[in-house]
């Protein structure tokens, strides 16, 4: 830690906000201790750390949602205490929440001014609010109409409205809590531009993100948290994403991805011809070969998820033909697909994957009840054995067997979901966003696991919005755009720029690819 | 990896559902104690047997409702369904009695059961295939069943045939080793129901559908089949309750089973079943039904509150039960 402090760059200006040995306990459990950091005007200070490292707690302490158990906050060098978020706001500290907290039924202007409406003689002045909202939106380069209903906006635009709302008034410190978590790749850039513009205006910015490449692009300094303690504050220059990951996890990372397997691929395992999912997928054909890891890239809304929801009978769809290991198949429900040996792991593990309020064993066996419990009565002993086995083989970390699924960390939930789908022993597994929102250590385990699946002779389709993940893991990548397959990449052609090109441009010619490869 | 496991626990929701599990039984015990203090006659074996017997049909219907509610549904039609089934059963028995004698009773019971299952199937189909909110769908069938019983009785009463009355009487008024038959029937229904809900695949599916329909669907569970089955179980339970109830009433009238849905839903909710689905408590439901009847009994035995206010007190209880459920979730 002492070595880390030696890295502190000599930035201009006194800190706006400083935390001195900040600590927080919840009921005797220390979740944050000895955190000392400062934020200076015109700097972007990133906070990184794994899930549970204490980032959210730190944010809430700085923005008045929580009060520290020990240590103090200094603003312009003077001690200050916030008893409520409104006091922090009044002092010029704004927090942009990770989740979008807007009323969908109200208009953009109404949302921005909710709770602090402009009134004239006690009557709400709609016009003044709309004008002020328009100015506020223009200031962050957002072209949404103040009259638009928030429910009709894209997620990216809602995020911008939320930022406009947080920035209403004058602010000296703006805290962004994983602002890009809900955005697609191409929606990220405009947001980063807004953050850089704020920095130019001399605002001090605290930036929390899981996406280390964004941190590398934006940050002036980086503070790393691990297990509620500070690892150190580092100058961002010369700090690679890989080094950041190592600091977060506390050990060196040779590579996040297992080395690719050199092997001959087998017969077609899954053959989809002329898939149509009305509104989402338009004439998609693909072939997955035995032992292959096939990546499916594209932006959110490109129809990747819907293709397989259609295949499983969850969405109305029509197919020219679907063959599983050479046999024609037609699935009316996920149960039929599971019986035939096709497993699908949803991208939405909290909404569609696990019963968060339920214990682990019922969650584990929910998709394979007939298999685990062959008789009329439940085989609870057998189920307990299955859970033990899953906990061991998937390295699920839990505090107690009686825990609820919702109490597990994101990574452990994902492993539980994986174990659940694997109970049906699928020969073809479709994994939708295998590592969304989970920490690096669990990510690397899941990658290794996916590879062990294909080594066993299973075949795997990985749908992901993280391009590096597909490039690091897959043998081949298909890129979808607007419901069609827009390109296929193998070998050295699997690069971020090529994936992005196919994902965004309608006709990606060979020539464009060529230029991309050289430029 | 090690630091993932030792990561300090963050502030988390309190998942304990202490009230939902033990609460109804504690409340029942407290109620018995209070009853004894108010009027020592309350604890007499006779009074207890009486009260519990009277709670039996609400308990049986509420056990069925436990399935519907824990699967995320609701059935408002149970009261008028009970009246309708009673009417069908009595009319059938009276029609066949001249030819088959007392054999009309078991036949009538079978007809009641079939009618109940058919009514449940109707509710379940409207809710799932018709995709109509359970509240609205069963509000509709509630009106239909109520109108049918009024029509069948021509606005008056349909009494059970004199020749059958004595033979049928023991089903409600009889006992085995001193335990009234309705109590035995409701215990049997509860034992079977608890087994089905907690120890079978169907029980797992039922609760999963109620907890999160999407998770259930993605797990390969047929949500439609699970939902319809819950309504069929409900229909069968209503039929069993009606079968027990016929000797006591002796007739079906347009007011039979009026507002039972309120008592049934109250019993289920104070028993700890989540009204939004995802958690079912069969024995809690039984305790809830007994609590309701105890309160009514206490109001009769004591002079504090007029017995005309029984429904009001039950209304207050369901609201309090919901408040406690909400608070225990925080």
Automatic annotation (TrEMBL), chain A:
SMART domains linked: AAA
Entries under Pfam families matching the protein: ABC_tran
Family label: Belongs to the ABC transporter superfamily.
SUPFAM superfamilies listed in its UniProt record: P-loop containing nucleoside triphosphate hydrolases
Domain of life: Bacteria
UniProt keyword Signal present: no
PANTHER family documented for this protein: CARBOHYDRATE TRANSPORT ATP-BINDING PROTEIN MG119-RELATED, GALACTOFURANOSE TRANSPORTER ATP-BINDING PROTEIN YTFR
Species of provenance: Ancylobacter vacuolatus
Protein name, entry field: Ribose transport system ATP-binding protein
Source species taxonomy: Bacteria, Pseudomonadati, Pseudomonadota, Alphaproteobacteria, Hyphomicrobiales
From TrEMBL, chain B:
Domain of life: Bacteria
Transmembrane segments: 19-39, 51-69, 76-97, 103-122, 172-198, 228-251, 257-275, 282-302, 308-324
Keywords per UniProt: Cell membrane, Membrane, Transmembrane, Transmembrane helix
UniProt KW Membrane keyword: yes
Organism: Ancylobacter vacuolatus
Entry membrane topology: Multi-pass membrane protein
Protein name: Ribose transport system permease protein
Pfam family name, one: BPD_transp_2
Subcellular location: Cell membrane
InterPro entries associated with the record: ABC_BtuC-like, ABC_transp_permease
């Amino acid at each position: 830690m002492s070595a880390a402090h030696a890295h502190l760059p000599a930035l201009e200006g006194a800190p706006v906000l400083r935390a001195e040995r900040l600590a927080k306990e919840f009921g005797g459990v220390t979740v944050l201790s000895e955190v000392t950091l400062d934020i200076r005007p015109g700097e972007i200070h990133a906070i990184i750390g794994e899930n549970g490292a204490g980032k959210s707690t730190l944010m809430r302490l700085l923005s008045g949602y929580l009060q520290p158990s020990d240590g103090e906050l200094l603003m312009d060098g003077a001690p200050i205490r916030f008893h409520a978020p409104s006091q922090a706001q009044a002092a010029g500290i704004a927090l942009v929440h990770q989740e979008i907290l807007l009323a969908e039924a109200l208009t953009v202007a109404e949302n921005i001014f909710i709770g602090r409406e402009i009134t004239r003689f006690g009557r709400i002045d709609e016009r003044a609010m709309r004008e002020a909202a328009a100015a506020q939106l223009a200031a962050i380069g957002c072209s949404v109409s103040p009259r638009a209903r928030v429910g009709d906006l894209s997620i990216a635009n809602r995020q911008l409205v939320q930022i406009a709302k947080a920035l209403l008034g004058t602010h000296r410190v703006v805290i962004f809590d994983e602002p890009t978590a809900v955005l697609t790749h191409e929606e990220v850039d405009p947001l980063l531009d807004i953050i850089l513009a704020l920095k130019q205006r001399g605002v001090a910015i605290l930036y929390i993100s899981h996406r280390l490449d964004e941190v590398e692009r934006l940050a002036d300094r980086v503070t790393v948290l691990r297990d509620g303690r500070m690892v150190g504050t580092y100058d961002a220059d010369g700090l690679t994403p890989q080094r950041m990951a190592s600091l977060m996890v506390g050990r060196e990372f040779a590579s996040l991805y297992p080395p690719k397997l050199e092997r001959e691929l087998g017969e077609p395992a899954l053959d989809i011809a002329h898939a149509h999912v009305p509104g989402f997928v338009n004439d998609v054909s693909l072939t997955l070969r035995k032992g292959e890891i096939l990546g499916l890239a594209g932006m959110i809304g490109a129809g990747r998820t819907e293709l397989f929801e259609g295949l499983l009978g969850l969405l109305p769809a029509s197919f020219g033909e679907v063959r599983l290991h050479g046999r024609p198949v037609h699935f009316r429900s996920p149960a039929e697909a599971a019986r035939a040996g096709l497993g699908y792991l949803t991208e939405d593990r909290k909404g569609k994957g696990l019963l968060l309020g339920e214990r682990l064993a019922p969650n584990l066996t929910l998709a394979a009840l007939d298999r685990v419990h062959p008789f009329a009565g439940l085989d609870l002993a057998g189920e307990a054995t299955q859970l033990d086995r899953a906990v061991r083989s998937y390295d699920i970390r839990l505090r107690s067997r009686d825990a609820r699924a919702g109490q597990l960390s994101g990574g452990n939930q994902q492993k539980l979901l994986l174990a659940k789908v694997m109970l049906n022993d699928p020969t073809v597994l479709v994994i939708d966003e295998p590592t969304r929102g989970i920490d690096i250590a669990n990510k690397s385990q899941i990658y290794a696991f996916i590879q062990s699946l294909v080594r066993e002779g299973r075949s795997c389709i990985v749908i992901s919005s993280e391009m590096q993940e597909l490039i690091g893991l897959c043998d081949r990548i298909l890129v979808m755009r607007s419901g069609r397959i827009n390109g296929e990449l193998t070998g050295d052609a699997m690069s971020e720029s090529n994936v992005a090109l196919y994902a965004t441009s309608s006709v990606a010619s060979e020539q464009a690819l060529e230029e991309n490869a050289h430029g | 990896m090690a630091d993932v496991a030792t990561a300090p626990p963050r502030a988390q929701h309190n998942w304990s559902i202490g009230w939902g599990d033990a609460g109804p039984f504690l409340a029942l015990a407290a109620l018995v104690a209070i009853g004894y203090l108010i009027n020592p006659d309350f604890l007499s074996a006779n009074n207890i047997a009486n009260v519990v017997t009277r709670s039996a049909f609400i308990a049986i219907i509420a056990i069925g409702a436990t399935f519907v509610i824990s699967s995320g549904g609701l059935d408002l039609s149970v009261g008028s369904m009970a009246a309708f089934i009673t009417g069908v059963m009595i009319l059938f028995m009276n029609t066949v009695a001249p030819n088959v004698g007392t054999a009309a009773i078991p036949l009538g019971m079978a007809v009641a059961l079939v009618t109940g299952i058919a009514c449940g199937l109707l509710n379940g189909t409207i809710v799932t295939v018709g995709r109509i909110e359970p509240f609205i769908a069963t509000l509709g069938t509630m009106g239909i069943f109520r109108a049918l019983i009024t029509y069948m009785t021509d606005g008056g009463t349909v009494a059970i045939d004199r020749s059958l009355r004595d033979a049928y009487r023991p089903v409600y008024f009889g006992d085995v080793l001193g335990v009234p038959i309705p109590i035995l029937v409701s215990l049997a229904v509860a034992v079977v129901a608890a087994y089905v809900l907690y120890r079978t695949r169907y029980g797992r599916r039922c609760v999963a559908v109620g907890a999160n329909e999407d998770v259930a669907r993605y797990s390969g569970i047929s949500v439609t089949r699970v939902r319809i089955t819950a309504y069929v179980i409900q229909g069968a339970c209503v039929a069993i309750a009606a079968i027990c109830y016929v000797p006591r009433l002796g007739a079906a009238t347009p007011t039979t089973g009026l507002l039972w849905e309120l008592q049934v839903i109250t019993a289920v909710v104070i028993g700890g079943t989540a009204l939004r689905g995802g958690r079912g408590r069969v024995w809690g439901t039984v305790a809830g039904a007994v609590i309701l009847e105890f309160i009514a009994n206490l109001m009769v035995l004591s002079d504090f509150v007029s017995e005309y206010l029984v429904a009001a007190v039950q209304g207050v209880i369901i609201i309090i039960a919901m408040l406690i459920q909400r608070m225990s979730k925080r």
